[in-house]
Amino acid sequence: MIFTLKELKRWILISIFEVSMALTVVLIFSVLLLLKIERHLDASWWTIFAPLFAFDILTAYFDIIVFIRLYLVLERSLAAKRLITNAVILLLLVVFKVLLCQKLEGIKHLPCSIVCSPLFVLLFLLLVRSCVISDGF
Questions:
Q1: I want to staple 92 with a disulfide (CB 3.0 to 4.6 A). Which of 43, 56, 122, 133 is the partner?
Q2: Residue 30: exposed, middle, or buried by beta-carbon count in 10 A (0-12, 13-18, 19+)?
Q3: Entry pTM
Q4: What pLDDT, in 10s, does the model give residues 78-136?
Q5: pLDDT tens-digit profile of 50-64?
């Protein structure tokens, strides 16, 4: 099932700008990952994941700006809901990326189930959110 852009915006509360920024960052990350796997680039995994971490920082900054704008136009409930939802999603993704980088660098020898546990929690939260949205929330 393919989501429309409007459904995607409503489901995960991100704007079209954030979607385009994410696609650009994923393209850059994919090129760096390909170069690392093919041994054309001798860089640490932290360097490979740097575009994703930069995207997380820009997303947090953008969310704070949107929160302030919504708060100023007296949409406090929507502002708080959007900020909390995006902060939780962002935190879980950052924890996953940090654990994955540590595992790939050999810093910590964690099982894959521990590394992916933030993704499992995120998927559960998005599942709950999609059920709440379908009820007209």
A1: 122
A2: exposed
A3: 0.84
A4: 888 889 988 999 999 999 999 999 999 999 889 999 999 999 999 999 888 778 765 55
A5: 999 999 999 999 989
Token couple for 57: 């920082």
Helix locations, 73-111, DSSP H: 76-105
User: Tokens 């989501």 appear where?
Assistant: 3
- Write out the two tokens for 8: 């995607």
The Cβ-side half-sphere exposure at 46, using a 13 Å CA radius, reads 5
Query: Radius of gyration (Cα) for the chain, nearest Å?
Result: 17
At position 50, the amino acid (one-letter code) is: A
Q: Cβ neighbours of residue 92 under 8 Å, at least 6 residues apart? A: 118, 119, 121, 122, 125
Tokens of 134: 């379908």
CB 48 within 8 A of CB 25: no
Around 130, how many Cα atoms within 13 Å sit in the side-chain half-sphere?
9
Pairwise CA distance, residues 103 & 110, whole Å: 6
Cβ pair 58, 90 in contact under 8 A:
no
Q: Which helix (H) or strand (E) holds 48?
A: helix 45-48
